[in-house]
Each structure stands twice: as C-alpha cells, then as structure tokens.
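User: quick one, fold this
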Amino acid sequence: MNHRQVLEALSGLILGMFVSMLASTVVSSSLPVIIHDLDGDQTAFTWVVTATLLTTAISTPVWGKLADLFNRKFLYQLAIVIFVLSTAAAGFSQNPEMLITFRAFQGIGAGGLAALSQVIMADILSPRERGKYMGLFGAVMAVATVGGPLLGGVLTDAWGWRWNFYVALPVAIIALILVQKTLHLSPQQRRKVSIDYVGIVLLSAAVSLLLIWVSIAGTATGFPWNSWQTYVMVGGAVVATAAFIIVELRAKEPLVPLSMFRNRTFTLAVVASISTGIAMFGASVFLSQYMQLARGATPTQAGLMTIPMIAGLLVASVVIGWVISKYGHWKPYLILGGILLIAGSYTLSTIHYDTNFALVSLYMFLLGAGVGMTMQNLVLIVQNTCKPNEIGVASSGVTFFRSLGGTVGVAVMGAALAAKVTDLMKDRLPELGKAIMSLGDKAAYWQAQLQSGAMPKVSDMPHALRVIIEDVYAQGISHSFLIAVPFAVVSLVAIVFLPNVSLNRMTNTERMHAGEADFATVSVDEGMQVLTATRSVRVVAGVDAASGAAGAVDEAPGSSAR
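Assistant:
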C-alpha cells in the first residue's frame, strides 16, 4: 500500500478514535459543573471518571481476544455504536448514579476502539512504518484532547452541559460510513472459538472490589479503613484474582494469556504502561479540577488553561513517531519520556492556588511530552516482538494495563484528594466561619452550600470564601499528584531494561504469510528427508529438491518414470 492508500484505510479508524477522545474529553472541563448541578460530591466526581476507565480496562482484553477470533472491521463499527449511544444517553442523566451507569457503558465502547485500532493498524503497517502513523493518531488524539475541553466549556457556558454528550453523534455517523467504505481487511481464517466468560467475570469482580474499597473507605459517607467491609472487599479482590489466574492457566482461549509474561518485552512494557496510564488519566481529571476549584476558572477558561499539557503530548507524539519511523531507534526516546513523566508528576505536586501560571504551564508540558513519548510506542514495541496470531491480545494487553493503571491511579488520587480536603476544611473552620459571617444576608446560603457536601462552584463564590476554598483544593490536588511520582520512577526502570529489538519492516499479515511459507518449506524438506531415508528417492547428481532443478535420479524399484 502506498501512502495515500494507507491514509484512506486509516481515515475511518482515525475519525473513530477522534469521536472516542472528543466524547471523553468534552466533559472534562465541565465535570465540576455537572457534579455540582447533580448534587454530587468528590467521590461521585471520581467515580464518573473511574467507571469509564474501569469498563474500558476490563473490556479491552475482551475486544482484543474477539479481534483474534472474529471480523475486526465489524467489531470496530460495533464499538463506535456502543460508545456513542451510551454517551448520548448520559446527556439525560438526572443524578450522579445515572451518569456513572451510562459512563460505564461508554467505557465498553472505548475499550473496543482503543484495542481494535491498534490491531487493525498492525494488519496493514509494519512496526517500522507504524511509528509515523501512530504519531498521526497521537496528533488527532491531541487535537481532540485540546478541542474537547474548549468545546465542552463553550457549550456548558452557552447552552448547558448536557450538549457535551450530544455533540459526538454526527461525527460518529461519518466515522461509521468511512470505515465501511475505506477499510478493507484480508479475511481471517475461520475457526471454532471459545470465549473465556468465567475469566471476564472474575477479572471484573477483582478490579471492581478494589476500586470501590479505595474510593469509599475512610470517607465521611463510607466506612473506616480498619473495618469488616475492608476485609470483605480486599479479601474478595484477592480471592477473585487468584481464581482468575487459575482459570486463565486452564482456559482453552484465555482472556489474558499468562504465557505472554514469559516475553520480557511484554512484561516490562506492561509495567511501564501502568505508570503512563496514571499520569495520563490522573492529569486529565485533576488538572481541570485544579483550574476550576483552585484558580476559580470557568469551564471555558479551564479548557484553555490545560492547552500546555496537550501541546506537549501533540509535539512529542508526532515528532518522536516520525523520528522512530525514519531512523528505527526507539529506546532513547522512551527513556526520555520516562524521565519527563517523573519531572512532570513531581513538579505538579508542588503547585498552589497562586503559583505563577507560566510555571504550571511548563509542568503540564513536561507531563504531556512524557505521555506522548511513551503511550503509543510501548504498544509498538510489543507488537514488534509478539507472534502474529497473538497481535490482538498482546496489543490489548498493554492497553488494558495502561487503562487499569489509570483507573486505580484516579481512584487512589481521588480518595487522597477527598481525604486531604476534608482534613484541611476541618483545620480551617475558624477562618471559614469568619468569612461566612462577613457575607451578611447571604451567609446562610453559603453555609448551607458548604455543609451539603456537594462539589462547590468556586467561580460563583464571594472573594472572602473563594480564597480559602481555592487554597484547600490546591493543596489537596498537589498532594494527589505526589502519588504518581513513585509509579513514574518504576516506569523508567522498566523502560531502561526493555530489550532493544530493532523494528522490522513487515506488516502483521506479511509475517503470517511468511510463517506459513516457512512451515511449507520445512514440511517439504522433512518430506524429502523421509523419502531419502527410506530409499524411495536417491539424490545422485546434485538435484536441488527445494528449487526443483533438473538432475539425475535413480528411481526406486517398481516406480515408473514421469
């Protein structure tokens, strides 16, 4: 395929990913307003994000397994339909619980789009060529990530936050048509399939119990850390994880083939992906919250203020993707990305409500560049070393652990933020009391707002109260970013020890055909050796059996000349 044919084939995939990213990011700048309007608290805010990440993580390996068994084009179209319909339904939410439910269904579609786009790219592009096209995907994702919060902020300020959930529908219809018209894949060999349903249930149970425990334990509306609920949830997660491992070892078609962990590249890439997920999803969630709750920005302003992070992601993914494709060297850029992840996470843990915004922008750029250098390239190097018939499950495996890392990271960071804010609010009760009393006839209204436990809308607050709340949330959010630092260090260590395997120039389809050709050659050679050993054929005059060159042969008794 020439460059134009590749772009035509990828156009539907790119637009599908754009829809996925747009529908996910369009609500990021308006989420504090949404939770405020639905009377939700910090736990609800965290779970609106975590629900999507959780179902994305759980469904990603399922979609990857299905991609190795069924028509990949149809699966991709199905993922678009599930994602967009659930996104549109979320626009009708009347309470946080309803919103969380539809966001969970949204994650199922997002998992399919993330996993299948990587698998389909491997079908039509070699790892060496895939770098620059992954950079193109990164650029589109960056545009959606920049445009999403801006568009969401404008829609929220102009017509209300519900329009955030409807905006992706027309784009999704165009994406479906493009995929149908431009994406043509070689038919896969039909075979009897077996879906690991027990593994799906056990994996869902293990991850869900862990996240629910992290989100609720230790909160004012939850239960203490040292309680019977903790023992039940943690114990249940451990048992479900052990059962999942046993089932995967025995399953005919395992959801996550544990044998893949024998591949050193896959194992280390998984470890590195977990930290990338924490940095990527944690930043997208809590930076928007920082802009609105710690700096009093409106949704539109918050979208504008997060541009430096997206700029870092855009520049790094496009430029590094092109460089890797041109020169074939990937490891130095992954190491640099790991260093930038550490730098970005640590510096963001030092921000306050009055930190110079130029410094905050620099910190965001560093984190974005680290994510841009590592996110897609970790999938790339795994696809480069895995077997062609395992490309789906290998790609989705890395994506799964990245989503899982992001899910756990957001849950832990959200729980740390909620606990920190609660403690700081208690410490500053005297100041809050004085500020409220100075508001005159509006004192009762603002006291009721704070006592409700709902997420505040800081941009509407009086200055005396706003300064205190901004400082409290700034300290809480910077504290939550500190949690990401040790994970970033582990990620860098894993990247350093990745085997430096050169990128090959064959597509996944070509590798499969080459494998079949090698098998056929070996079979012919073995057959000739058997015939020679049994004296059915005697090679006497330099006959080249593999090439069929002419030569003299003695025929076995009873045979006839041809």
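User: anything notable?
Assistant: The chain has two domains: 3-185+253-433+467-506, 512-555.
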